[in-house]
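Q: A reviewer asked whether we had any structural model of the full assembly, not just the individual parts. We don't, so I'm hoping you can provide one. Inputs are below.
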Amino acid sequence: MKKLHYILFVVLCGCIALSACRKEAPELYDPNQEGLCINSWGKTFESFWHGMNNNYVFWDVDTVDWDRIYAVYKPKFDAIEGQSEAADKQAEAYFMEFIPYLRDHHFNLTLNLNGTRFNPGDLEVLTRDYYHDRFSYEAFMGTVQKLREAGRITAYKEAEVACPHTAKDTMRMISYNLDQGIVYLQFDGFSISHLCQEEHQAGDEDHAALTEVYQNYRNLIESLPNLKGVVIDVRQNGGGYYELGEDILGILISEPLTFAEQRTKNGMGRLDFAPWIPTTLHVHPDNHPVTVPIIALADLYSVSMSEMTSMAISEMPNGYVIGERTFGGHGGVINRNYSYVGTFGNQVYEVYTCSVMTRRMDGKCYEGIGVIPDIECHNDSTRFAAGIDDQLERAVTFIKTGR
Amino acid sequence: MKKTYLFLTLCLCGLSSIPVSAQWSVGVSGGYTYNKLTTSSDYKYDLRYKARGGWSIAVPVQYRFFDWLAVQAELSYLQKNYHQYRGASHFSSIYCNVRNSYLQIPLMAQFSFGSERVRGFLNAGGYMGFWLRSRAQGVGLSWDITHEMEDNKPYSSNVEFDSRRDRRVELGALVGLGVQYNLSPQIHLQAEARYLYALTDMQKNNMLFQFPRYNNTFVTQIGIPYTFLKK
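A: Here is a predicted structure for the entire assembly that you could use as a starting point for your response.
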């Protein structure tokens, strides 16, 4: 019995000793709630770095060495003394040394102190060899006017409505029948369904006009006896709400279409990811499937939902993307409390970043790269200003010739 | 897969290198596992982890030196599962059941006591495990192009191992308490409760301020060892 007691004692001591072999978890502050404690650039960097460390969803594919950033820049930010314009400039210069290399093209760091913004996506597109400034809406309408004068457009509808719930002031939408058989739809934001619903509630004439443009698109698809193709123009469209997919694309398909997969994070680790979940385009209850070519016209300024739309069209058997490689902001942004990842901030700074990472059906993530068009075509600014839309003409040629 | 074969070969070589003599016993055992993860979700206050059940099966091989002391090794397959969920009621539909399968070699000393018919025993030792497979089933956050983005979608899929993140070899300590009923000099019936305490993080060191993740596994099992008596 004495032997047994001795053995039990040894085992017990062993258990106690072994419990000390485990690593302790770090204790962190929630970056969303520590604004009041931040009173130096060193603490600002520390808070931002930790927020990114635990909330950023692209560490799987991002090439920035975040541990190295901490090792190199923590001492530098700590060394910035006091609060002065020179100190602020120094801190901003440090941020500019590494933020441009982040892959998330939705990402935006705003310093509340002076409103300075750091946006890797805006900086990255400047380096592309086909970079160009945005074309003005007036120039775009000039190309439409030229087509109308040439008698190539019939059943024309357009609307411009106030868009108070989004970052944009207005939303514009155009639909028409081009060259007697090509249904064309253009819009510069994704708030259509939302606004259409408002129209029903408010009876607002502007919103009724928007519904009319959308209905014109649907009517043309359903009624044109010689339908040759459909063009969805998402050029210079910055994205927005998500309800649009079914209304615009869901009417064109007969079966649900999985066109991408998405995942979010599910833990504090950089590489703690939840499983990939298919992203599916559903069939509209009043669908009118078509077999003619469906073209997404996209450009450098097609972002987010515009790119998702291009991806969905690209996965259709009769779908093609024509234009330029898009911006590359493919992730989704949702409420931070819902996902526990993505956007975070406090009184000192705000970080706008994705909560969801997207990969296409080839298993690759094109965040920061963009949707690569099936047919690459660029608009020349001089010709565009003269009313010639080469990208649209390329789409028309493809629809008419299959080449 | 290569690593699995190498691991198995090493284990079998290790077992076969012990000279066969009397008082060897070999058997089969199986039971229920209940695994709890030791980790932290820190300020993600309602992200929680809960223990989850699984099962185990093992082939124990034992060499008895004295009536009170033996050395036992096993080749076992067991699950170390856990449940992850959101505690806040409005997110309660989001959860993930993770099923982790391990191939494991425990090596332990067995101290036994009691009568000839019924004997109690205490196992103490360590183990080396290899993380074979991980599967996740649950309801997750999804972005649906045609509906509300904040939709929840069910999923069930194998988790791809990431060589940057996953430490697939697990080392740990174990202690067990059991009782053996000798049906005959050769055939015995055992029941045991065992606790496996992982000493290695499930993740490699892949980031600063990393939150470690350790398995704590309770196993309750029954087994039937067969003793090869000395002639």
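A: Points you may want to mention in the reply: Chain A has two domains: 38-120, 137-401. The mean pLDDT of chain A is 90.
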